[in-house]
TrEMBL record:
<dbReference type="GO" id="GO:0016787">
    <property type="term" value="F:hydrolase activity"/>
</dbReference>
<keyword id="KW-0378">Hydrolase</keyword>
<dbReference type="Pfam" id="PF07687">
    <property type="entry name" value="M20_dimer"/>
</dbReference>
<dbReference type="InterPro" id="IPR011650">
    <property type="entry name" value="Peptidase_M20_dimer"/>
</dbReference>
<feature type="signal peptide">
    <location>
        <begin position="1"/>
        <end position="21"/>
    </location>
</feature>
<dbReference type="InterPro" id="IPR001261">
    <property type="entry name" value="ArgE/DapE_CS"/>
</dbReference>
<dbReference type="GO" id="GO:0046872">
    <property type="term" value="F:metal ion binding"/>
</dbReference>
<dbReference type="InterPro" id="IPR036264">
    <property type="entry name" value="Bact_exopeptidase_dim_dom"/>
</dbReference>
<keyword id="KW-0862">Zinc</keyword>
<dbReference type="Pfam" id="PF01546">
    <property type="entry name" value="Peptidase_M20"/>
</dbReference>
<keyword id="KW-0732">Signal</keyword>
<dbReference type="InterPro" id="IPR002933">
    <property type="entry name" value="Peptidase_M20"/>
</dbReference>
<dbReference type="InterPro" id="IPR050072">
    <property type="entry name" value="Peptidase_M20A"/>
</dbReference>
<keyword id="KW-0479">Metal-binding</keyword>
<protein>
    <recommendedName>
        <fullName>Peptidase M20 dimerisation domain-containing protein</fullName>
    </recommendedName>
</protein>
<comment type="similarity">
    <text>Belongs to the peptidase M20A family.</text>
</comment>
<feature type="domain" description="Peptidase M20 dimerisation">
    <location>
        <begin position="229"/>
        <end position="324"/>
    </location>
</feature>
Length: 483
């Protein structure tokens, strides 16, 4: 029996057994019961489950299970899906989305590195179309190792809980709610959840072979609920130096490869690289250095690996400077490794969002096309790949609202054209999605960032009302986290 001495336990101490049996929202507390008692309590629990209770009681007894958003997120996080092993989570999503009235295509993705069956999940509402103008997309693979789902009072833990199953779950619920509330028609939004984002981007790149295109694509990654202005590019450089081995006492007989590579790295480390107002400084990291075999041997070979996060406009702006810097240095050879990607500038022309510049990579450059690009999602990249990956439940709810506002904002901006179809019931169509005149897709915005410090600011006059309607109830009983 392991108990944490936290104030919540003092509150619980009167009835810890009941608490365990009912799965009150204290499940983050690790209370181990003897097996006999546990079985007994499970019996009681299953009897209670047969009693019809008012929904507010259900919300107290099982806050996760009674929330469509939290239970979808829990189910996603509970399924291991480290890159290369995404079949099970894809099949789960297929079943789930079909049950919610979506038409689902499992799109096989083949890669020599990953021999198992893998599928991108592409879905659109029944009666809608494959070519809906707005795509909500994220990824279903995670980095290793798998970490099981764990429910806390306010926070959920587990691999993928943040990156990116929080985005997947909130995008799906946002689409369901937009449809149910008739903010969009069936042919407005499609969903795509890809494999392989954490490794080589093969899932998203595969979409380029399918002759699909969108007017606007909303990418779901942890952005702390802010609209990303973009993310830095990445280039990796491998540097080798060749010398000639000899006795360290007679350096004039050898050529020291370490000395060469030190010269090169010193120059790179002090290189002034271009930045941009939107993405900030280009940064250079000397990640790996190796060279030599023993202290008393002149090293014949040395190597280093360097990663450059590009805040400039283009990779080439940095490439020229790096190559120039290394030109005069004797005995070194530098090779750009593949793949590299250019900085990504995202659209962020929607009112009511704070903005953020990011320094991590996404699938955005892997999807070809002239679509507008939005990048938004719950959670922080700072916990995304760690062993304490987590997401706040309130952030999941905020993200649902955020994705809905983004979709409505895109529609209000008239940047997309929803295909015109005869509508049997025109009164059921929300005015904001009436077929609108085509305007050229707005090119990437590179204007000065305008910080809008009012995340609640309404998208339009009706938005205030909508926000009221969208208020989600979720239970927070104790003022402290149980974990
Ligand atoms: C960017 O670089 C400049 C000059 O090297 C430095 O003063 C500044 O602090 C850097 N900005 C950040 C955010 O690191």
């Amino acid at each position: 029996m392991r108990l944490y001495a936290s104030p919540s336990l003092i509150a619980l101490s009167a009835a810890p057994l009941v608490v365990h049996s009912l799965q009150l929202p204290f499940v983050g507390i690790d209370i181990q019961l003897p097996a006999v008692l546990d079985t007994h309590l499970n019996n009681i629990k299953s009897q209670i489950a047969q009693i019809q209770v008012p929904s507010f009681i259900n919300k107290i007894i099982d806050p996760t299970g009674s929330s469509p958003l939290l239970s979808l997120h829990r189910d996603l996080v509970s399924i291991p899906s480290v890159s290369g092993n995404e079949e099970q989570v894809a099949r789960f999503l297929e079943t789930y989305l079909q049950s919610k009235g979506f038409k689902v295509e499992l799109i096989p993705v083949q890669s020599p590195e990953y021999p198992k069956k893998r599928y991108n999940v592409f879905a659109y509402p029944e009666g809608g179309s494959r070519s809906a103008p707005i795509l909500l997309t994220s990824h279903i693979d995670t980095v290793p190792p798998f970490i099981p789902f764990k429910d806390g009072l306010r926070t959920v833990y587990g691999r993928g809980s943040c990156d990116a199953k929080a985005s997947v779950a909130s995008q799906i619920i946002a689409a369901e709610e937009l449809l149910a509330q008739k903010h969009i028609t069936e042919d407005t939004v499609s969903l795509l959840f890809v494999v392989g984002e954490e490794t080589n981007g093969d899932g998203m790149r595969h979409m380029n072979t399918l002759d699909l295109k969108w007017d606007a694509v909303v990418f779901g990654e942890p952005t702390e609920l802010k609209l990303a202005v973009g993310h830095k590019g990445l280039a990796m450089l491998e540097i080798e130096a060749k010398g000639r081995a000899s006795h360290s006492g007679y350096p004039n007989l050898g050529v020291n490869a370490n000395s060469h590579i030190i010269n090169a790295l010193y120059k790179l480390d002090n290189l002034k690289l271009p930045s941009s107002d939107l993405l900030g400084n280009t940064t250079l990291n000397i990640g790996i250095m190796s060279g030599g075999v023993a202290a008393n041997v002149i090293p014949a070979y040395a190597s280093a690996e360097v990663a450059i996060r590009i805040g400039a406009e283009h990779f080439t702006d940095v490439k020229v400077l790096v190559e120039d810097a290394l030109k005069g240095i004797e005995g070194v050879e530098a090779t750009w490794k593949h793949p590299h990607y250019d900085p990504v500038f995202c659209d962020h022309d929607l009112e009511g969002f704070e903005t953020i510049a990011l320094s991590y990579g996404t699938d955005i450059p892997n999807l070809n096309g002239n679509h507008k690009k939005y990048l938004y999602g719950p959670g922080s990249i700072l916990v995304a790949h760690g062993d304490n990956e987590k997401i706040d439940k309130s952030d999941l709810y905020e993200a649902v609202k955020g994705y809905k506002r983004i979709v409505k904002g895109i529609l209000n901006a008239k940047a997309v054209v929803v295909a015109e179809k005869p509508k049997p019931k025109p009164e059921a169509v929300a005015p904001s999605v009436a077929p609108i005149v085509a305007e050229p897709v707005v090119p990437v915005v590179e204007a000065e960032v305008e910080k809008v410090a009012t995340p609640e600011a309404p998208v339009n006059k009706d938005a205030k009302k909508n926000e009221e309607e969208e208020k989600v109830e979720y239970v927070t009983i104790l003022p402290i986290d149980a974990v």
